[in-house]
Write a structure and sequence with these properties.
The complex is a heterotrimer of chains A (311), B (534) and C (387). Chain A is mostly helical. Chain A is globular. The chains are: A mainly alpha (311), B alpha/beta (534), C mainly alpha (387). Chains in contact: A-B, A-C, B-C.
Amino acid sequence: MNELLQSAVLTALLSGGLAAAIPLMFVGLGEQIAERAGVLNIGIEGMMLFGAYWGFVAAYYGNSIWLGFLAGMAGGAALSLIMVLLCIRLGLDQIVVGIAITVASEGVTSVLYYAQLGSTRPRLGAAPTIAIPLLSSIPILGSSVFTQPLAVYLGIVLVMVLGWVFRSTNIGLNIHAAGEKPAALDAAGVSVVATRSWSELAAGALFGLGGAYLSVVTAGVFVRFMTHGEGYIGLVLAMLARGRPVWVLIGAVLFGLSLALQDTLQLARVTIPSDLIFMLPYVVVMLTLVIFARRSYLPPALALPYVRGQR
Amino acid sequence: MSQNPASTSQPAAADVPAVELIGITKRFPGVVANDDVSLAVRHGEVHCLLGENGAGKSTLMSILSGMLSPDAGRIRIDGREVRIDAPQRALELGIGMVYQHSMLIPALTVLENLMLGESRGLRLPIEEARRRFEELSATLGVQIEPRTVTADLALGQQQQVEIIKALWRGSRVLILDEPTSMLTPQGVADLQKVLVRLKESGVACIFITHKLHEALAIGDRVSILKQGRVAGTIDEQTMHTRSHHELQSMIVRMMFGDEARAVSGVAELEDETVGHRARHVPDAPPLLELDGVSARGEGHGTGIHGISLAIRPGEIVGIAGVDGNGQRELADAIAGQIGLTGGEIRFEGRAINRLSVAARQALGIRYITDDRLGEGIVPSLSVALNLVLKQIGREPFWRRGQIQMGAINRGARELVGRFDVRTPGVGARIGTLSGGNIQKVLLARDLASEPRVVIFHKPTQGLDIKTTRWVRQLIRTQAEAGVSTLVISTDLDEILELCDRVGVLFRGRLAGIVENGPDAARRIGELMIGGQAA
Amino acid sequence: MIDLADAATASPAKRIAPHRSRISRPLEVLIRSVGPVLLALIAGGILLLALGRNPISFYGDIYSGGILQSAWQDSVMRTAPLLLIASGLILIFRANIWNLGYDGQFLLAATVIAGIGPGLDLRLPTWLTLIVLFVVAAVVGGLWTLIPALLKARYGVNEIITTLMMSFIGISLANVLIKGPFQDFSRNTPQTPTLPLNAMLPSIPGTGTPNVPGTGVHIGILIALAVTLAVHYVLTRTSFGLKLQVLGANQRTAAHVGLNVPRLIITAFLLSGALVGLAAAVEILGIWGYVRADWNPAFGDAVIPFVFLARLNALAVIPFVAFYAVLSIGGDYATQNAGLPVDFLLVLVGLILLFMTITEYVGRRRDLGASYLTDGLREAVGRKQDV
C-alpha cells in the first residue's frame, strides 16, 4: 500500500491516465458532434484505428508528430466520408455500414502495417511536452497534469470552443435541430444533409486525431487492432455527456485512469493478473451505464435517415 | 431586412392575387392527389380550403411551401411566375406555413426555434431576434416568454409561436393546415382574433380545414377540394348574401354531388339529422371501474392523477380534452400497457391492477389504439397475421406452438367479409391498405371475439366520411350488445354524437363528468380550459 | 402530412398498387445475394494489386487451399461453428436486437469446456462427457448475455454497447481462466490441457481413415445442420418465431398486442448466446481439444454480412456460410502464400457488407425487392429511452 502512495506511482498514474484519456476525449467529442446531429458511428472504432495507423506512419516517416496528427485526421475523415455518402446522402443503414467500416479498417490496417512495417516494428520517441510555468512545479500534479504535449492544451481549448459552438452559433443550433427533428430544420430552409455531412466529417477527423494521438504519443507504436474498444468507450462518453463537451473530458479522464491502471499497478508491484486489469475499463463502462442509464439522452432522430416529404 | 406585416406600406396592385396556383397536378404511386387544381388567393383575405381527409389539401399546400414539387402546373406570386423547389425558396418568396403537425422542436426554446435557419454568419443574433419577437407578439396580441422551452408551452401557445415563425421574414402569405384540430374552443376564438389582425395588415391567409362550420365562420372565400379537384369556390358576395343553411347545402352538394342524400356527411348535418339520441342504458353494476387511478406519463407526458370513473355495460362514456392531457396514459393504464402509481382498476368488481395486457385481453378488455401504424399493426405482415396478432399461440390458430395457416386464413376471410375490409387478399401486406381499411382490421381484430370493455382512441381520425359513419355505427351497435365503451377523442362533435356521459381530461385529472344534453358542448368547453363545471 | 390513404377508399380505381418487382424473381435473388460478394472479391483483387500481389493466383490459392484434395473436409468442418453462430445471430436480429458480443460468448464457452473437459472425461464415458460439455457450452454462452439482456429488458439500455463491452470482458476473463485455474503447466505457452483424440467428436463414417481417430470429418457439421434446421423451423413456423418477428418490427406493437416484451428479450438473448456456445463446443470438441491464450478466431464478425445477405433466413444462410468457410480455409493458405496476414479476410468481409448496403440501395431504387433488414432492426437505437 505504501508503494501505491509513493509520489512516483501517483505521478505515473496521472500522466499515464491523461495520456490514455486524450485519445478518448477527442473521440468522444467527435461522436458528440455527430450524435447531436443524428448520426451514430458504430464505425468509430475503425475510424480511430485508421487514424492511428496513418498517424503513426506519417509521424515516423515525416519525423514530426504534427504531421502524424494531420494524417490521422485525414484518415479518419476519409472513412467518415463513406458514412456521409452511404448513410447521410443515400439513407442506408448506419449500423451496418458502421460495422463494415470497423471490420474493413481492422483488416486493412493490419495488412498495411504488416506489409509496410511488419519487419522493422519501429517505435517513436516520447513526444515533446510543454511545462506550464508555475503550475508545473506543483509536486505530483505539476509533472503529470501540467506538463503535457501541446496537443493536450489545444484539446482542452477545443472542449471550451465546442461548448460555445453548441450554445451560441448558427451551426450549433442547426446541428441540434438535425438530431432532434430534421423535418423542422428542413422546413426552416436549412439543408439537413449538409449539416449532418459536415458534422460527420468533423467527427471523423476527430476520431482520426484520437487514434493518431494514441499511436504517436500515448503508445509510441502501432499494433494491429490497437484501439481495442476505445472507440466504443468514446461512443459511451458521448451518450452520457448529454450535449456538454465538458462531461466528455471528465469521462475521458475517468476511463483513461482505469486504462492506465495496468501499468501503474505493475509499477507498484501489486500482483493482479494483467488480464483482470485489462478488463477494468470495460467493467467501468458497464457500471457507468448501469448507474447512469437513466441520465443519458439520445437525440430522437439518431440513426434515422432524413427524407423530405415522408413522415 | 424583414418587414413587419403590420407596418406594410405598399399593398400589391389591388387585382393581382397574392398567390395563384394554375393547373397543379401531383401523382403518387396509385393515387392522383392533386388533379389540375387552380386557385387564387388575394391579399388581406382569409381563403378557406375545405375538403374531407384525403381530398388533397395538404398535398397542395406542401407544394406551395416547397416540400413537394408538382408534376404539372404553374405558380404565380404577386403575378410573377415562380418555381418553388425547396422550403428555402418558399420562405424567400414570402410564403410562411404553419403545418398541421408541429414543426417546432420541443427541446429548443421559443427563441431558438425562431432563430433556426434565419440568419447567416457564425453567431446567433439573439438580441435582434428578441426584438423581432416582441414586435410580432405585439402585432398578434400574443404573450409568451421567449426563453421558455417549447415543450413546456400549451398547444395553443405553440401554435402562436408557429405563426410568428411563419411571419418572421415578413411573409405576405400564410398557410395554416388544420390549425384548430388541437385547440380548445377558447383557443379557436383566439386564433380567429389573430387572423383578423393579420388580414388587416394585408397578409393573404390560406386556411385548410375539413370542418364546414369553421370554413364558413372564418373564411372570406371558400374553395372546396374533392378527390384532388376543385369542386367549386364560394365568393364573398355569396358568403355575405346567402344564409348559413343555404351555404351549407351548396357546399355539401359540391362535395358529394347527388349522393348528398345517401351520404349526408359533414359534421353539422350529422347534428341536425342524426344527432344524439338519448339512449337507455340498463341499470346494472359497472363492468369497469377506475378508483383514484394514477400513472406516470412517458417523457414529457402529463400522466394521470386520481381518475375515478365507472362504466356500466352498454354505456358509452366519452373522454374529451385537448391532446396531451393524459389520454394516452389513461388508455394505456386500462389496457395494462403501463403500471399504476396509485389507485385501483376493477373489472366485474375484481381488481386487475396486476394483470398483464394479455390477461386483460382474455377477460374481454380491448383497446383500439389511435396509433394504427406505430402500435396497432405490423405493416410488413399480412392482413391475416395481423388479425390474429393478439392471439399468438392460441388455438385454433396455433396447435402445440405450430402455426396453422389454414385456420388463420379462414378466420381472416370471414372477418374481412364481415367488416368490409377492402384488400386484394388476406395475404396482402397490411401496410399497403388505406388508413380506413387498416382501422377496420383493428376493429375486426378486437371486436370479433366477445369484447366486454372496449376503449376507442380517436376511432375516426383521418378517415373519410363514409368510413367514419360506419365506425360510429359500429360503436353504437357494440354498446347495444352490452359492451362497456370508452371513447377517447379530441373531436368534440364525435363525443357529443356518441356518448351518454362525457368526462373531460385536463392536466391529467378528470375535470368533471357531464351528462350529454343540449348544454353539454358549452360545459365541456369550459372544463377543457380548466373552468369548473357549471 | 399527406393523407393519401383515404383517397383510395373513396374511389376503388385509385387504390395503391401492390408491390411489384420489375425483374424476375430468380434473377432478383441472384443479384441481391451474389452481387455484393462478387463486387467485394473484385475490390479485394484491386487492393491485392495495389499491394503488389497477384489476385488471380491469390483467389486460385483460395480455391485449391479450400477445396482441393482433402481441404474440402476442413471447409466442411469450418462450416459447423460458423453456421451455429449464424443461426444465433439470425434469431436475435429478427427480434431487432443487436447481439454483438459473440466473441466473448464464444471464447468463454470454449475455455470453460476445454478447462473441465479432461477432468470429466476421466470420470464419465465419452458420449456422456460430450453431451455434458455441449450443454455446458450452451449454458455459458447464454449466461454471458444475461447482463446485457437484463439491462435492455428492464431499463432499455442500448445493447450494442453492453454486448460489446461484455465481449471484451469475456475475452479477458477467458485468458484469466486459461492462465490460471485451467492452465496446463506442462506446456510452454499458456493453454488448457488437451482432450485426448478419442474423447472428441467422432468422425462421420466413411470419411477419413478407419480406426484412426482425428481423421475425416467430425459430426459437428451434422449437429450444426440439424440445429440450424430446427432454428429455422422455430423462427418460421412457431408462435415463438412470430413473437420474435413482431418484437423485431416494433417493440410498442409487441407490448400492445399482449406479448411479454422483457421476457422475450431475455429469451432471445439466452438462445442466441446458447447457439454461440454450441458453436464453441463444436469447434473445441471437433477440432482443437484445447484452448490457448490470446486466441480469437473472430467467427462472428465474419458471419455477419452473410446473415444479412440471406435476409435473416436460416436455411438461406447455409450456402453463404459454406462459401465463407471455403474462403477462410483457403484464405489461410492463400494469405500465407502471398505473404499477407490472415486479417486480409476481414477486408473482404467488410467490403461484402459495404457492397451489400449499396446493392440494397440500388435494388430499392430500381424495385428489386424488399430490404435486407427488418423494419425494426434499422431503428434499434433511435428510441428516446435507450442509453
